[in-house]
Amino acid sequence: MNNESKSPTDGSALRGCVLVVDDERNIRRTLRMVLEGEGAEVLEAATGEEALGVLAQGSSAVGAIVMDVKMPGVSGMQVLERMAEYAPRRPMPPVIMISGHASVEDAVRATRLGAFDFFEKPLDRDRVIVSVRNALARYGRECELETLRARIRGEILGDSAIMRGLLAQVRKVGSTRARVLITGESGTGKELVARAIHEASERRDASFVKVNCAAIPRELIESELFGHERGAFTGAVQQKKGLFELADGGTILLDEIGDMSISAQAKVLRVLQSGELMHVGGSRLVNVDVRVLAATHRNLQELVNAGEFREDLFFRLAVVPINVPPLRERIDDIGVLARHFIDEACRENGLTEKQLSADALAALSTYAWPGNVRELRNVIERMVILSDDGIELSDVPTEIRGNTEATSEDGEPSLVDLSDGKLPPGMSLRDFREAVERAFILQRLRELGWNVSKTAESLGIERTHLHKKMKLLRIQRSGA
């Protein structure tokens, strides 16, 4: 290896474990001495088989691999091809390929197989150290990103297309410094989205401070946000830092910002513009570095038009708007959410694991959920506590199952019989129309095996519209 006596230009230590794979003992020994001299931990493998064995153990220790292209038995190229098979964990450690008989074709093939770098022997010491440092750094970033994704997936549940899109937005905006306005109905999980954005940012290790603007009396909101000096008002017996100061270096979530007073809005705008605030009753400016996220279930544009919300603050906050969908628009996620909440409720209440029957899930999936995920969580916990060995349709609250007072022989709600062309006495036009519509939808649902998506498609309407119709017409599956 050339220039063995030189040190890397930046002088920073190598942090991580490097697997050196080469059939030449001298190459392995030289690389070990160089890399360990720079602070790295080094593992060795003399053959491709040995390297695959190390990877097959699933150890997360290896953060980079330096490997010869040509070796007896399993070559370096073959190891590169089979790494995914032998190392099920993700992300994969970057691979730096080395060769004493390199060709352009070898380099191109290695790159196509995912090699991080490619060097010819004899190796240049400084170039190898720089490449290994970059490989370890990339692996570290990928591990952090995977951890973050797992954390986000663990908090924001759902695999529907609309939720995958939401998670993609969270990941994109999280790594920036942009302000985000999170909108959505009550109970949809706006705070979880805000926390996920914070976790995806470079501020993840700093404070995340949530402020519920609707829960703080208007006369106290400014003191809570910006702090106050002693004697600023009755009861201010000592100086107090505000929540913006407590979030310095981190993120603050202004939840239900649509309920904030106009005077407080003006001061929030000042913080956004200059990064400066002043305690209530104070005269000294305080500098803060805070990323501001805002959330609301109200339509801020309508509040701006009504003069109840500052337009300049609205534009400052809504740099990136993210809307959290209501549960009725992601019915496909109810099964995943229900399973999570069942496990959570069983664990918190000291109960054995319970299963949710298909009929019970079908009933949950035809409900409109005006209270969204929060309502689903509460309903699930109630069913877990009150049910016996498993959660059956009879355990689903009647207000969710719908009206079951009048039932036919097969257990389904009875329909008005119009086959003889006679109307029941006193039937209004509205009742007649709903009876016909109900019978038609119910028949189509039966024909398509109660597949709501296919039924909606066959009817030429949106699935969410069909769910609303089923709720309104009290249509539910057999056994309700």
What does the model show?
The protein is α/β, with parallel strands linked by helices. It has 3 domains: 17-143, Response regulator (Rossmann fold), CATH 3.40.50.2300; 161-228 and 241-325, P-loop containing nucleotide triphosphate hydrolases (Rossmann fold), CATH 3.40.50; 329-413 and 421-472, Helicase, Ruva Protein, domain 3 (Orthogonal Bundle). The chain contains 19 helices and 12 strands. The longest helix has 31 residues, at 125-155. It is flat and about 95 Å long. The termini are far apart. Residues 4-9 and 403-417 have low confidence and may be disordered.
Features:
Helicase, Ruva Protein, domain 3; alpha/beta; 12% strand; Rossmann fold; five-stranded parallel sheet; 480 residues; single chain
Supply the CATH architecture of the largest domain.
Answer: 3-Layer(aba) Sandwich
Based on Cα principal axes, name the global outline.
flat
List low-confidence stretches.
4-9, 403-417
Biggest β-sheet strands, sense, barrel: 5 strands, parallel
State the strand order across the main sheet.
2-1-3-4-5
Distance between the termini: 77 Å
Percentage of residues in helical conformation: 40-55%
Report the CATH C-level class of the largest domain.
Alpha Beta
